[in-house]
Amino acid sequence: MKRAKPVFDDYYAGVFQERWPALRAALEKPPAPAAFSCGLLSPYCLDAASLAAARALGETGGSRVLDMCAAPGGKTLVLASTLGPGGRITANERSAHRRRRLLAVLDAHLPPELRCRVGVTGRDAARWGLYEQNAYDSVLLDAPCSSERHLILNPKHLASWSPARIRHLAQQAYAMLLAALAAAAPGGRVLYSVCALCAEEGDGVILRARERLPEGFAVLETGCDIPSEKTLFGRKVLPDRAGGAGPMYFALLEKRGGKG
To answer: What DSSP character marks residue 61?
Structure first.
């Protein structure tokens, strides 16, 4: 830890410059929770930035929705709260342990008339194109990421950190985003989000997807109901300027005609 912590801090100080000390201090404090209760049996607390990101996808209505990395389930609850007649959600989580937690959250918070329209699967999100293509009106990809807020509070993980972790997670997120675009129907929307600080896992993933699929999708403007900062393709919420919420990056895409 004595060697790794300076590497971590040196890296992020290089990214954020003079902002890093205040940002790091904000990351070490408890997050800003939001109690979400719309349409639920009981409130569910999640980070205010996570709530804002899920809302950016818009109302689900009677559409077919895919939540590709759904655990622990907070964003799925937000999506389900606006589900209309005929609408259905596929909540996917590959990890069996996290999937059990997802099921418990859905069972505890969704009323029966909504719960019966939320299915749970355990597929590999990066390989979704092997299962379904051009199938969903809305796709939420909250990709596994650096999650620096949790990392800072875990000495074991902090001790093993290196910049290679960011590159690995960005590559994984890129594969998942291509799969999300393949899963979306033409004209469908894809909300990509990560609770990471670095642009490599945010705008960088969108940029790589655009280079791979130059005519495959459009980037849509999206607002945010808490303090946020505009990026090249989306928005980011950082806790030093958002009352403790975040970190969170999200971007809204619309799939163009043809395959993803």
So the answer is: B
201: tokens are 């896992």
Domain boundaries, the chain: 4-255
Residue 69 a catalytic site member: no
**Which stretches of the chain are DSSP H helices?**
4-16, 20-28, 48-55, 74-80, 96-109, 112-115, 148-152, 155-159, 163-183, 203-212
Locus of tokens 């900062």 = 229
- Report which residue type is found at 166: I
CATH of domain 4-255: 3.40.50.150
pTM, two decimal places: 0.95
| CA 48 – CA 105 distance, rounded (Å) | 18
Per-residue pLDDT band at 32 (split at 50, 70, 90): confident
Q: Which two tokens stand for residue 46?
A: 């999640």
The active-site residue out of 69, 116, 145, 195 is 195
Q: What's the longest Cα–Cα distance across the chain? A: 56
